[in-house]
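Dear colleagues,

I hope this message finds you well. In preparation for our joint manuscript, I am sending the PspA/IM30 family protein (Microbacterium gawkjiense) sequence together with its predicted structure, so that both groups work from identical material. I would be grateful if you could confirm receipt.
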Amino acid sequence: MAKQSIFGRISTLVKANINALLDSAEDPQKMLDQLVRDYTNNIADAETAIAETIGNLRLLERDHDEDVKAAAEWGNKAIAASRKADELRAAGNTTDADKFDNLAKIALQRQISEENEARAIAPSIAAQTEVVEKLKDGLNGMKQKLDQLRSKRSELLARAKTAEAQNKVHDAVKSIDVLDPTSELGRFEDKVRRQEALAAGKAEIAASSIDAQFNQLEDIGELTEVEARLAALKTGGNAGAIEQ
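The corresponding structure tokens are as follows:
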């Protein structure tokens, strides 16, 4: 029953769809870790069961070989006893000849018995050999599945680490996004822009002040010309515009 149970587990695990199991799992990594443990433990159980089954098969084969060998030996003894009986009978010693013929019969009976035992064991050997081959195939299938599981686990862990790294990069980039007004760099840029605007305003004010001063100079020039023309009128001179 134990072997049948192990054989059933092997069949179930070999037929298991890893991708389907992962798709239905809330935590694929934990599922993979559990599957790896299950497969590893079941492989160890299967190896023990197969070793026991192979051991039993070898014992049956040994018994079969011994039965075949014993049958051959009893056959040889029957031949030897029969020949001896023929020699004695040819010599006229029928009493001893009958004894050796009886020995030949006994040997033949033993030969038949050993042959029957050998034939009886043969089906068990065939059945056990089939079981061993199936168990070996199942074990190889489980080992391949285990390799797939380990590969999937490595792939999943690598993808998880890559995704984590990408998220960190995205978060880092977002934290220094110059277009983000809430970021430190955005606030600093806003402060610089205000300083630049203030400087531009001061420059504009300074430019306006210089223009006003030049305008005052022009006004002073006009007053001076008026005074000069007035003085000319008083002295009887020409009050017209000064020729250029």
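For the figure legend, we might mention the following. The mean pLDDT is 79. Residues 94-175 form the longest helix (82 residues).

With kind regards,
E.M.
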